[in-house]
Design goal:
There is one protein chain. The protein is an all-alpha fold. The chain has one domain. 87% of the residues lie in helices and 0% in strands.
């Protein structure tokens, strides 16, 4: 159990660091709008999760701790539902309803689509 907890701890640390770095880069390169960085990060995490979950279950017989590291730790530390939710509410508070609706729809539709794509490409 302690080994499993350590695997999740390490994975989430790496995922969180990568999320922070991509957030900084995307704000400097793509857009200074905070929600664009979160959208990129969460959609990338969706693809990663779909791909790895399928690959780990169908192709690679990995030890459970490696799956915890990648799927629970890394993907969980990399993606951020709470930030997404906060940013949608912030856009609504600013009365930027169009951006809030687009962000919400793009996140959900593309996120589910990218999980599906990741699963299909992993086969």
């Amino acid at each position: 159990m302690l080994k499993s907890l350590f695997c999740v701890f390490l994975g989430s640390g790496f995922g969180g660091m990568l999320r922070f770095m991509i957030s900084l880069l995307s704000r400097n390169i793509i857009s200074d709008k905070v929600y664009i960085a979160t959208l990129i990060i969460n959609l990338t995490a969706c693809f990663f999760l779909g791909f790895c979950a399928e690959k780990f279950s169908s192709v690679f017989a990995l030890h459970h701790d490696y799956k915890l590291f990648a799927l629970v730790g890394f993907a969980g530390g990399f993606s951020t539902f709470s930030t997404f939710s906060f940013e949608v509410l912030t856009l609504i508070d600013k009365q930027d309803y169009l951006s809030a609706a687009l962000y919400l729809m793009l996140s959900l539709i593309l996120g589910i689509g990218l999980i599906f794509l990741g699963q299909r490409l992993a086969v």
